[in-house]
Fold these 3 entries.
Entry 1:
Amino acid sequence: MFLSCGDSLFDLFAQDCDDVAEIRLAGRVGGSPLNVALGLARLGHRVGYFTKISRDMFGARIRAFMAREQIDERFLVATDRNTTLAMVSLGPDGSPAYAFYTEGTADRSIEPDEVPAELPAAVRAIHLASYSTVTEPTASALARLARQEHQRRFISYDPNIRASIEPDLDIWRAKVAELVPLAGLVKASEEDLGLLYPGRSLDAVLDDWLAAGAGMAVLTLGERGAVARTGGGISASAAGQSIAVVDTVGAGDTFQAALLAGLAETDALSREALQDLDREALAARLEFAVRAAAITCSRRGADLPRRADLGLPPL
């Protein structure tokens, strides 16, 4: 079982409207780690979600969505705080730009003492990502969970920088430095590293993360695919896929979910197993993750693929 943690929100997409006195919005459940939970569930894996969730209309929808997608709700903490909202505009290439409404919202208000003192034995891996790892008090709560569990469970981490929520990049850099040593898998996009370490070689950043203690460091390159290195000294890459892009919302989260699923299904979801991966096995995991992300890019919003979409039989 996986446990994903942190952001839970609604992405609101503006729709065309001729009347300047009117705005039409189309909403979809979102949040980077919640997308990863969705991806894992749709790929047939048991997954739970840990966050603080609102009792408002949006929170009720998120709960119903989790129930429909078979995401375990037992780790949710209820609150009367509002749900985070993200206004999404799309560029000509389908890339999203976000304006977040986050002040005092539910997923940003997890207190460290609300972290479960003990997790069920079935939880094999924990995933952390995005703004919930840098906005307090949730950031301290999730860091506490990672420190508490990293020697017993596999930690997956994606910084997924959202500078519009926390513009101080030094805070992001400090959090990356704190969490990378605890992570079996750390994945970032080329855009993330450009923000965090402008002018630095991308290869050097991956090497630094491995030297700091990460079991595997992965870099996504958009349409050019992805590259990865392991602590065992193996490097591999996967080319991008040529598709008609609707938008890229949730593409990185799909990649993360598919990579985690692939590792789990090949008994490689541990630091020890990552050390033993050969180049062919690592490349295969990357190719699968790239293929899954391409399917999401062919759809509107974070509509992640199911096993059948990837030509896979049920688990």
Entry 2:
Amino acid sequence: MQIATRQDDGAFSPRLMMVTMTAAMGGFLFGFDSSIINGTVDAIQQTFSLSPGMLGFTVSFALLGAMVGAWYAGVCAERFGRVRTMLIAASLLAISALGSGLVFLVWDLIFWRFVGGIGVGMASVIAPAYIAEISPANLRGRLGTLQLLAIVIGIFLAILTSAVIANLTGGANATAWLGLAAWRWMFLTELAPALLYGALALMLPESPRYLVEKGRAREAGEILATVVGIDNPRANHRKINEIRDTIEQDHHKSIKDILDARFLFLPIVWVGILLSVFQQFVGINVIFYYSTTLWKSVGFQESDSFLISVIMATTNIVATVIAICLIDHIGRKRLLLIGSAMMCASLTIMALSFSQAVAHAGELSLPYPWGPVALIAANVFIIGFGASWGPVVWVLLAEMFSNRIRAIALGLGAAVQWLANFAVSMTFPMLASVGLEYAYGLYAAFAGLSWLFVYCSVRETNRRQLEDMTESTARFASQQGAFD
């Protein structure tokens, strides 16, 4: 990152980089804790004798906790501060790690995963919010990408950790250290990053916006000078006044606002909702939650299945870097269209490949060349998603709404994403029990529909002012008292 000279708006500094990297650990925990389940799925099913439906419920129930955590993260951040909200999230994740690793019954596991899900949801919201509030405007975009990179790195390290533990112990269901099964240690590994996140969060400065809101303008000025880089007294004072004006104009949103008919009938709101739904209904999280089980089910050895999962997580990191490089050059809409086409084609090939599976002694396998074809198609799918729908949907949701409704529209979009993620993750084991070709054929159909939806309904937001998005939101914003 190029180091800028100090300006009235702020500038890059080593301390700013350390602060944003620490905050981005919330994204790392988001990726790590939501994906560590990957290596444990088969062992959990065997240990607790779960049906496909119950397995899906067990794996995905944490996502409902994440929906709750994302919803209430803003409430906690306003009441207790951004840093204390990070500490709450870290505490919930640490407690969940211990509880999940030491469970006795499947219902214990469901409960502790739900607790961890709340922490994941809070971390997924508070990290980008804090980074945006602590960063100079001219560096906010680049520093914000640290959160996105942290998520995919967390996914990669979670899958890699599971693979290493399984390799050292002889399998996820094998007895490991202290007499605990290997899958339990996979959950216990969540404890280390959670404690590290909490320890580092204790050293973070509070958000200047929160401090101004609480009447602590002097402290806010010190942070603006030492962290953000606004060390000119006049510029520092002007920035505090700008924050104060923004706070006075801001309206706290509630569930009543979301249920307001004037909000729900806005076409742009439904564009945001459907973007969130399609992002999940293409089945991306099936790859990161069930990939080890998936490849075992069609004849690969457990060690090979873990290796394949690691390769896929690596591919996801590469795809994210591609998205960061392309998003401002070719535009949001075009990138989504390219991603939808890639996903539809690759998912169709995966469905065709799995339809060729043959049974030997009660076990499925993919005859040559369908095994390598399925593997290549799966990685193309990850590239198509990771370079487009993964990051671009979040960018669009942040850009496509007017200032008046952006906060509640973003909150609704995040909640819908977690709910759609839950629906896909819960139903996959049942679909897979009927036939993997049907599951991936369904996801391919949604990918095709996503292309049509983007082509017909999504407007390009690249290089446009946030206040100049759509006529519908502009008309809504002009309605006095809509959210007053």
Entry 3:
Amino acid sequence: MELISLSNWDSSVADDVSYDVFVTNQSIDDRARFFASSFEGRFIQKIIIKNKISGSSFSKQLEDLGFVDVELSGFEQVLRCVDLGGKCVNVLLDISCMPRDVMSHLLSSILSFFSGCIVRIRIKYTIASYSLPPNDIGANAGIEAVHSDFSGWSHADSKPTSLVLGLGYEPFKAEGASEFFEPYDQWVFVPESPVTDYLPKVIENNQQLINRSEAENRTIYYKVDDPEMTFGQLEQVVSLLSQTTNPVLMPFGPKILFFLCLIQSLCHPEVGVWYVTGNHPEEIVNNFASEHSCGFECVFAVGKVD
């Protein structure tokens, strides 16, 4: 698998792409409907990944637009229906409300299924309007690799572990992950959202982490709405850390960073993407879409492409 290109994508600019599959995630979050009901692209299959939390009202609204409910375990059956005559597959994922384990499963399935193809994946992320962090955030239930394909440490050696933390605005989450790993080296990625209310709360709830990382020049501020630049920032840090350590990426905060970390793991198999297991309150609350969104396109050559 080779990453051919990664660039920002503006979904408001019309183009001639016909998508083989468009995937969104069932959620009570308003953003799960926002893009799916407004984007005017052309699709062969439109899929909602079902979950056990949401009620039926979400699905009914999108079923009227031609979406079909699919269990995550049945996603590969959807891929079997893709016509490979052109040896190029186009997939659109709306990750605005998509859990991290679902994102990793979908990406792994897509890239493992279409061997010998050029695969273009477009990612859409709608930024939520600001709301206070959920009150019912408990301790981290567990920390583990998000998927076996993104577990890292592909070469057995004695390198120490390093950690790249993406900060969210929930208190204690990132600090708990840092204490779990006790990393040899640690970098912190701080999100700068166009919804400016988020940044002060991110800093307030991660002040000790940020103070330590800034004292060691290990702080990166990234723009949530510029995935291409953020990927370049990640690439610089990961390439540096990989020389002497086994990096682990723990991206809390905006899901756009998480997906970029998955791609980093594909490019650097020794790099793992880990996450916190258990309840994620941010995935079961109704956030409303802001006026801001972003997207990017990544193109892969999977296996030997004729």
